């Protein structure tokens, strides 16, 4: 079937907004957690890298991506392969941990920033297209290679910026402004990647969606759970920072 007969995707405005909000909260939390990376050593440093990477990869990027995927409404049934979906989350988290670990090791410099940003950006791109591959539906996905490359470029640039912000900003105002910008960048990568895809109907029928997960409230549920986890982590981090400040006094 030609591309001019591809299935059209219309987005649920509520889920689009929620995907942006969770990306901003995840970015803000990750920036707060990354403060501890340069000065920490040993197990403390590993904990800081893991927690900041999980907030960025799992909250700011993967949760945003999956909620935005669920925001896409088409006139065919769509479910999601659970192992591939969870695997895409692992890719996002691990790539963010790697980027933060590389950029935050020793003296901060542009070489490590670019290496870490490229690695993180490629991981984010892999997460996105793995998530797309998890879509189970009676349609084939055809990609525009130019837009795929554009989405990868956005992911790499956004990752480099995120790492620079993580190790050069201090103060709530700066971090909040940066998180708002990061939310736009992460969403821009996702929707560019979605624009690159055309969904061409095939003859698979209902068998194509068997075994996948779906649900009308799945997107809202992921937002609620992710937001609660990020808020808890952020609160604990801020309390620890305050305790350390009081000890120094």
UniProtKB/TrEMBL annotation:
Keywords: Membrane, Transmembrane, Transmembrane helix
Pfam families: MHYT
Keyword Membrane: yes
MHYT domain: residues covered: 11-200
Transmembrane feature ranges: 14-37, 49-70, 82-102, 114-135, 147-167, 179-200, 220-239
Protein name (Swiss-Prot/TrEMBL): MHYT domain-containing protein
Organism listed in the record: Lysobacter gummosus
């Amino acid at each position: 079937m030609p591309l001019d007969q591809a299935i059209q995707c219309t987005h649920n405005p509520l889920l689009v907004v929620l995907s942006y909000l969770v990306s901003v909260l995840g970015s803000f939390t990750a920036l707060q957690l990354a403060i501890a990376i340069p000065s920490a050593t040993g197990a403390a440093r590993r904990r800081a890298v893991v927690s900041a990477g999980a907030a960025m990869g799992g909250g700011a990027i993967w949760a945003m991506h999956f909620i935005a995927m669920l925001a896409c409404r088409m006139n065919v049934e769509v479910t999601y392969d659970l192992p591939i979906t969870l695997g895409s989350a692992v890719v996002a988290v691990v790539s963010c941990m790697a980027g933060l670990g590389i950029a935050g090791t020793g003296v901060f410099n542009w070489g490590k920033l670019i290496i870490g940003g490229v690695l993180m950006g490629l991981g984010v791109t892999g997460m996105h297209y793995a998530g797309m591959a998890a879509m189970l539906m009676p349609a084939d996905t055809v990609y525009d290679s130019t837009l795929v490359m554009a989405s990868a470029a956005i992911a790499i640039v956004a990752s480099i910026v995120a790492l620079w912000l993580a190790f050069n900003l201090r103060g709530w105002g700066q971090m909040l402004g940066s998180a708002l910008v990061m939310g736009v960048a992460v969403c821009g990568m996702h929707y560019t990647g979605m624009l690159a895809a055309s969904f061409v109907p095939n003859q698979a029928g209902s068998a194509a969606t068997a075994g996948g997960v779906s649900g009308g409230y799945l997107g809202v549920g992921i937002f609620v759970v992710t937001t609660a986890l990020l808020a808890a982590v952020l609160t604990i981090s801020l309390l620890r920072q305050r305790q350390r400040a009081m000890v120094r006094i």
